[in-house]
Write a structure and sequence with these properties.
The structure holds two protein chains of two kinds. By secondary structure, chain A is mostly helical. In chain A, 54% of the residues lie in helices and 0% in strands. The radius of gyration of chain A is 20 Å and the shape is globular. The chains are: A mainly alpha, B alpha/beta.
Chain lengths: 187, 137
């Protein structure tokens, strides 16, 4: 057994249970990048990310915003001629960067995810007014005011609750979550 | 005969660190970098202790391994040392005190980063506890 493993193998280990071919089979055809609806906002396109991983350029991969911009539309995965599960790769990189605290500064994704998961665990439901602060301050004034206006209108129409709703049988739900994520007091 | 240990952890830097510590204490150490290889190794070879990480692969895969171990008649007796940075990794899930749920019959939880001296002590006590239990039976 080799002493240590490369970054590319580390990523494959994150993906070990995924259906589809490993990254090594990538032929760099660029279909994923051409298909991606958010590729224009990414530092590196999905094709470049796969190439960087295969070359073991860990720093560049982790410092890119690519995987946090992924909208999980799965179009790349569907069209990949080598059947690489690229969306799953983006999720794997998100996990990896959160576990290692190595993602790019100033991204909405990590804070948003944390706020979202916390909220679901606490109440079982999504509640927008708590989620909003994780991204709203990155907006400029005009966007900010538009968002506020939008929220006010929703509120007046009764489409946005003022207080967070709780689901019924919260205990059951918490126990269910405990099977998936090791929260305090598992079994 | 030297005791045989298996490490299942996906972080190569951390693994090389604890492997060096354990090697220096004359343990025979094997490493698996993903849960699948790890479980296969457990089934095909004999080990005296398992050092298990929690957050691997798709999420809390370490816990899946612990559950499988508990169901396996042969592997149920294997002592497990859980080494995890889970509180740091998903800190928001632990609102208060450190929690140590029992994963298998004989287990112990150590949080990353690990003190070499403490690691060796825990390894020693776990192996002894498992042997004492075997003798009793």
């Amino acid at each position: 057994m080799a002493d240590t493993i490369t970054f590319s193998e580390e990523v494959s280990n994150l993906l070990y249970a995924t259906e589809g071919e490993p990254l090594k089979t990538c032929i760099q055809c660029g279909t994923c990048s051409g298909t991606c609806p958010v590729a224009g906002y990414m530092d590196h396109t999905p094709r470049q990310i796969i190439a960087l991983i295969n070359q073991g350029r860990k720093e560049e991969v982790l410092n890119s915003n690519t995987y946090w911009y992924c909208a999980s539309c799965y179009h790349c995965t569907v069209r990949c001629p080598q059947e690489i599960n690229i969306s799953e790769l983006m999720y794997a990189l998100k996990r990896y960067s959160i576990w290692k605290h190595q993602h790019k500064e100033g991204l909405v994704g990590p804070t948003f995810s944390e706020a979202f998961v916390k909220m679901i665990i606490r109440t079982g439901r999504s509640f927008e007014p708590i989620l909003a602060p994780s991204y709203i301050f990155s907006f400029n004034l005009r966007e900010f005011l538009l968002e506020v206006q939008n929220a006010t209108e929703l509120l007046l129409k009764g489409r946005l609750p003022i207080l967070p709703a709780r689901i019924k049988r919260m205990d059951n739900f918490k126990r269910m979550l405990g099977r998936i994520i090791p929260m305090g007091g598992l079994e | 005969m030297n005791k045989r240990l298996l490490i299942i952890d996906d972080d190569p830097d951390f693994v090389s660190g604890i492997k060096a510590i354990l090697d220096s204490a004359n343990y025979e150490v094997e490493v698996a970098y993903n849960p699948k290889d790890g479980f296969q190794a457990l089934q095909s070879k004999h080990f005296d202790l398992l050092l298990l990480d929690i957050m691997m692969g798709r999420g809390a895969e370490g816990i899946m391994i612990a559950r499988k171990l508990r169901k396996d008649a042969k592997l149920r007796e294997l002592p497990v040392l859980i080494i995890t940075g889970i509180r740091e990794q998903i800190a928001f899930l632990f609102p208060g005190e450190p929690v140590h749920p029992r994963f298998v019959e004989i287990d112990e939880l150590v949080e990353k980063p690990v003190e070499p001296k403490m690691l060796l002590e825990k390894v020693e006590t776990l192996i002894q506890a498992a042997e004492a239990k075997k003798v009793k039976k």
